[in-house]
Design brief:
The chain is α+β, with helices and mostly antiparallel strands. The protein has eight helices and 27 strands. Helix 2 runs parallel beside helix 4.
Length: 470
Amino acid sequence: MSAPYRLENELYRIDVEADAGRLVSVLDKKGGCDLITDPALAENFRLLLPLPDVECNYIDGREQKLSACDASADSLTLTWRGPLTSGYGAFDLDVVLRIALAGEAIEFTCEVRNDAEMTMMARLACWRTECPIEQEDAMVGNVLLCVALAVCCGCSLMSDASVEPRAQPQTGARKLTLVDDGLKRAAIIVAVGDEHAREAAEALQKYIEKMSGAKLDILEEGQEGAGQGPEVRIYVGHTAAAKENGITVPAGHDPSIRPDAFEEEGYILKTRGNNIFIGGNADGPYLGTIYGAYAFLEKLGCRFYFPGEWGEVVPEHKTVTVPDLDVESSPDFPLRHIGLNGGWVPTTAEEQDTYRDWRKKVGYESKDVGTYPLVGDGFLGILLPPSEFWEAHPEYYAMDKKGQRHIGTGDVNHTTMLCLSNPDVFTQVLQNLKTAFAEKPVSGFRNLLTSSSRGIRSGSRDSFSTPSRN
């Protein structure tokens, strides 16, 4: 193996692997520690180059051959000349990464020359460190932050930036232009009286304006006029135009439990002439049209990694175009929910709203779908609701040290403990579960986990054993 390339001053010593150009060592001389604690953590760059049928097409810099390294007294300039490869083929991309010593800082600047026909998301990951770092949009990071904040979060030092492809000859299906050099060329047309379509349209308007500076008009169907108006029309929801173009938008909600229950939920993204159609199942608890809008924005390069603006990547393009679309999507899983429980994780009302908004962006389902019982943690009182059983069967519930049986206060289903040493409890719970799964669930979910400790025994004064199941 060839000797590494080295960059050094009185504060730092940086070693770069000669073969693939991975950053293998960043030694803080004053602190006496290397920020790269394990060779497996050494990286250089990763590129995300979504393909029409593969969104997660990552080009891993660790698997590319370093073409050249130009060294000066205070910088290294690393070059990887294309084609660069992934598991999905070879792509006409060049990457130039400059590492510079600037006083007490180490600066990283990455340039990507994109001669491919796809818009790319570039991710600079020179090394992984044990602290969360936010870098500037220009991909410049200060290593002093790493030294000062080296704690225990185990995340990567990364920056995201959108990289436009160079102009290419038109090939295949033509693209529709929504914004041309900052000027709007499209309008958003929503289905009449469709609240989900309105919300989806506002999301499209917001993020396309963030991308380009152009704010597209939102019109109700019928207001756009025939043979006049915008060059491109984005129809959102269950529009008459979709039906006239032979496009079927998912609809319907049957709450019965069956193998194909979740296939009725979904959305479509389609182009017809100068028209774009975005629509989904908005019946019952479904949010298909809203999911479709955010899926469309992902086609334009937007990403929603975490709740709030800090977790979003919105590329800046003065010209925004849309490729030919023929997408029909339904979820692979009917239950797609992660709760943010304010009782366990203190959160403000604003944070809860931000989280609920983000769930729509990433395709989480509405909390109360009603088709399947939701999963949950330890609230055994739900299995035998006190409102149904306490009066006739107080023996079903836990006993305190004085021999008194109790049910909880407030939300009693979530604060009540059962008497697990009573075999009749098991018999009644089993009967209730059979009923719940054979019919439409009466309440949100059923679980079989013990409750979090509330200082109440789960059985009689002398027994904590679970019932016999023979």
